Amino acid sequence: MQVRKNIFLWALYDFANSIIMIVFLFYFSQWLVIDSGKPDWWYNSVLVISSLFFILTAPVVGQRLDETGHKLRGVRFYSIITFIFYLFTALIALFAPSQVLLAIICFTLAMYFYLMTFIYYTPMINDISTDANRGWVSGLGIGANYAGQVFGLLITLPFATGAIALFGASGRVQTFIPALILFVIFALPLLLKYKEASTERIVEKINIKNEYIKVFQTTKTIFSIKNLALLLIAYFLFSDALLTFGNNFPIYLEKVFGASDTIKTYLTAGILVFSGIGSLIFGKITDKKGTKFTLSIILVFWIIFFPALAFASSLTIASIICLIAGLFYGPVWGVSRAMVSEFTTQEIEARAFSFYILAERFATFIGPITWSIILAATADSGNWSYSYGLLGMGVLVLIGFLIIQKIKTS
After folding, report:
1. Could you tell me which residues come within 8 angstroms of residue 206 by beta carbon, excluding any fewer than 6 positions away?
2. With contact defined as beta carbons under 8 Å apart, do 194 and 200 qualify?
3. Contact, 106 vs 88, CB < 8 A?
């Protein structure tokens, strides 16, 4: 009974943190690039810097977690710090909108601490699932994540359009405080009620130099597991493509098709609904057909999707393509997460998951740079520069797909 309760609380937390993630990414990016008139690379630099901080610290934190076993304690600590820096970002944007640089610094730190929660949160899946239902539980978490994103976007839309106003500057920044309140409401159940198995372990006092030596040794261990190494390399490439496009999606819609906030919100919400549905569907398929088969089918779709969207001639066509794509967006993360569990031993589970998240964040480090370079190099092409960017993302997915085919499964 407690396991079922823990699964519910685990998924509910995914619902909670997805609200602040989507609202701040969706509206902060537009506030910075469109409202404040800054170039695209300003926003992408936030993703790059927060990911760089994460890349430098995540392996040590994952290493330490395997030694202590205290997952819930880490989720609690980093959730509080995340909330504080998102709150600072919101207050600056609301009451000192001219202080753009200060808002960027706070947002970058908020993103970093938000990422750190997953070092502790993601390995919890092995505590609440078995080999028989891990694909389903993983898909449930991803489904909750996308449900939270839909909920967050729809409930904050009236604040963005001005139908409801609180205080401070008007417009998109009005969405930030409501998102933070919702995060607190839905995150607290896990932070207070989740029951973690006691782990009494003797832990040495931390020595940074020794920890990085251990990280190097862990890297050798993880990459000696061929299937896991291939998965992480491939994941880096295809998640690079999907995350980069997803993070720039609202800017893309406005720059290319002149879409309003209302249209962008409903379209994004529709995509996320399909993502949640797809996560549940492909979670079941994963348990029956296996992770490699399921992930391969999903990646084949994305190889087709990016060129199709690149040549979409209208917002209507692009919207139809994107809505269909939603079914294949959420499952990418659920199936990949299940694959990490499949190829990982209990002794290195936290470190393996930290490398999995690291691969995702390293993609968010390289991806925005790649996207920005393509847009800058083809700026004279007008809206076609975004098409070239999409084609580039399609190539990354193709390479990732080919690497996945080298994985050997029984």
Report:
1. 64
2. no
3. yes
d(CA 228, CA 291): 13
- Please report, for the chain, the start and end positions of each structural domain, with discontinuous segments joined by +: 2-193+213-404
The DSSP secondary-structure symbol of 407 reads -
The pLDDT averaged over each successive group of 10 residues in the chain (410 residues) is: 82 92 90 82 81 78 70 90 96 92 94 89 80 74 82 92 84 93 95 76 58 68 77 85 85 86 88 82 83 91 92 91 89 79 65 64 68 84 85 90 86
CA dihedral 198→200→201→205, nearest 10 degrees, is 100
How far apart, in whole angstroms, are the C-alpha atoms of residue 328 and residue 242? Answer: 11
SS (H, E, C) 381-396: HCCHHHHHHHHHHHHH
For residue 266, give both structure tokens.
Answer: 């409903």
Which residues, 6+ apart, have CB-to-CB distance to 67 below 8 Å?
201, 203, 204
Q: Which residues contact 83 (CB under 8 A, 6 or more apart)?
A: 180, 183, 184
Nearest to 387 by CA among 314, 329, 312, 326: 312
Give the helix ranges, DSSP H, for 31-132.
40-68, 71-95, 100-121, 125-128
* pTM metric for this prediction: 0.73
Transcribe 201-213 into DSSP letters: ---PPP-HHHHHH
CB atoms closer than 10 angstroms to residue 360: 23
What pLDDT is recorded for position 398? 93
Burial class (CB in 10 A: 0-12, 13-18, 19+), 209: exposed
- Classified as helix, coil or strand, 358 is helix
Our CA angle for 388, 37, 163, nearest 5°, is 105
pLDDT at 407: 86
Please tell me the predicted confidence (pLDDT) of residue 2: 72
pLDDT given for residue 275 in this prediction: 81
Q: Is the dihedral of CA 327, 333, 338, 339 positive or negative?
A: positive
* Fold assignment, 2-193+213-404: Growth Hormone; Chain: A; (1.20.1250)
How far is Cα 271 from Cα 288, in angstroms, rounded to an integer? 25
